[in-house]
Amino acid sequence: MASTTTTTLAAIVVVACLLASGPQEADAAITCGQVVGYISSCLSYARSGGAMPPKCCPGVRALNGAARTTPDRQQACACLKSLSGGMSVPYAPSIPSKCGVSVPYTISPKTDCTK
Fold it and tell me: Where is the secretion signal located (predicted)?
């Protein structure tokens, strides 16, 4: 089980690094690598539910604070959308509200990050 979690996390980090090295929103200062850094402790909850990891909410709040401009929020949204696309993350949409953070979109492969 730990091996599966480690493999999944490693795959997410690799994808995030690839995304971070690709074309970015011209005015966005935040990278997908940073987004993953903020939310990596939330992955077990996003996939399986249960107890919220202690470092998850501080990471979510830090990401919310770092993504202040519209381009940053769009970039963070695109990163989260891309990361959620290949995995079942049924509990991901509940994370912001459980952490007391309001975001104008739901973390989903169908989210339109341009709005």
Answer: 1-28
**pLDDT (tens digit per residue) in 58-108:** 999 999 999 989 999 999 999 988 887 766 678 888 999 999 998 877 777
Distance separating alpha carbons of residues 96 and 60, to the nearest angstrom: 7
Q: Distance (Å, rounded) from C-alpha 6 to C-alpha 104?
A: 31
| List of residues 6+ apart from 35 with CB closer than 8 A | 16, 63, 75, 76, 79, 80, 83
Nearest by Cα to 35 from 69, 91, 96, 78: 78
pTM flag (> 0.70): yes
Q: Topology of domain 2-98, per CATH? A: Hydrophobic Seed Protein (1.10.110)
CA 14/CA 20 separation, integer angstroms: 10
Length reported for the chain: 115
